[in-house]
């Protein structure tokens, strides 16, 4: 008795066609193919999600996008040493145990234009890109002004609510960068010392890291912050980095004296008495 296959082959010959049995894909091969496609899609979604998260962190941080290591001029020993310390600090974030072990404070001090803010910003950008560390960059004077105006209960610009929100950010963010600390001030006011000291102590308790940038030397810095605030800093695992190289900012006043215009002895002179 002929099988179905034989009957189909005879029918195919009668019609001038040859029967070719179908090739079926093995289940294991098909499953592997679909898993590879699914993994590719998941990785693509993860990359897009990470990119969006990084962009969100960068947007909230208020960092200068030009503050990167690629743009940093390493033309003096102090900057070279600062970059070495900075990169060691960044690399340490690979170890989750180190992250949870305590709070770390970096103090960048030196004259204007030496690269302090740029180096701090470069650290922040690297931490955001590599580890999605949340960062907040603020000038201390700006926060203190907002804090002062938050006590105006008749204000219509909602400054009180804005300050409460930023104060919570100061406590929650992974890395807080405070720039221009005590700029143009020999001593912070007592209430500002207490407020800043409390912020630093709460961050310390939650193992949150800080970078403080100042133009004072360390002795002046301690005096300007006050004892209560500076004692808060001593509790951190502290790195002190001095910037003493040349200024990287453009000169406005020429280094060479400008030639003076010759004075004329004749001609009209305003308000001259005849």
From TrEMBL:
Q: One GO biological process from the UniProt record? A: DNA replication
Enumerate the residue ranges of region (Disordered).
247-274
Q: Where is the IstB-like ATP-binding domain?
A: 103-226
One Pfam family for this entry, by name?
IstB_IS21
Which GO molecular function annotations are given, in alphabetical order? ATP binding
Q: State the superkingdom.
A: Bacteria
Record-linked InterPro entries: IstB_ATP-bd (IPR002611), P-loop_NTPase (IPR027417)
**SUPFAM superfamilies per the record?**
P-loop containing nucleoside triphosphate hydrolases
Annotated protein name in UniProt: IstB-like ATP-binding domain-containing protein
Query: Which species does the entry assign this protein to?
Result: Paraglaciecola psychrophila 170
PANTHER family attached to this UniProt entry: ATP-BINDING PROTEIN RV3427C IN INSERTION SEQUENCE-RELATED, CHROMOSOMAL REPLICATION INITIATOR PROTEIN DNAA
């Amino acid at each position: 008795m002929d099988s179905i296959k034989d009957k189909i082959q005879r029918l195919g010959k009668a019609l001038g066609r040859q029967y070719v049995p179908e090739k079926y894909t093995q289940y294991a091969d098909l499953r592997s193919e679909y898993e590879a496609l699914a993994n590719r899609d998941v990785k693509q979604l993860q990359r897009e999600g990470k990119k969006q998260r990084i962009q969100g962190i960068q947007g909230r941080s208020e960092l200068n996008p030009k503050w990167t290591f690629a743009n940093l001029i390493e033309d003096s020993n102090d900057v070279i040493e600062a970059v070495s310390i900075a990169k060691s600090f960044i690399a340490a974030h690979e170890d989750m145990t180190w992250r949870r072990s305590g709070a770390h404070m970096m103090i960048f001090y030196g004259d204007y234009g030496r690269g302090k803010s740029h180096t701090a910003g470069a650290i922040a950008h690297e931490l955001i890109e590599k580890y999605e560390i949340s960062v907040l960059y603020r000038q201390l004077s700006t926060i203190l002004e907002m804090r002062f105006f938050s006590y105006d209960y008749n204000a219509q610009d909602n400054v009180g609510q804005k300050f409460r929100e930023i104060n919570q950010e100061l406590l929650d963010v992974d890395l807080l960068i405070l720039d221009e600390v005590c700029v143009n001030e020999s001593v912070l006011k007592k209430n500002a010392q207490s407020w800043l000291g409390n912020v630093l102590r709460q961050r310390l308790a939650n193992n949150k890291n800080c970078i403080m940038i100042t133009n004072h030397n360390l002795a002046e810095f301690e005096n300007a912050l006050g004892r209560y605030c500076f004692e808060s800093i001593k509790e951190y695992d502290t790195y002190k980095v001095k910037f003493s190289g040349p200024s990287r900012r453009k000169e406005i006043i020429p280094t060479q004296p400008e030639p003076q215009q010759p004075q004329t002895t004749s001609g009209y002179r305003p308000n001259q008495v005849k």
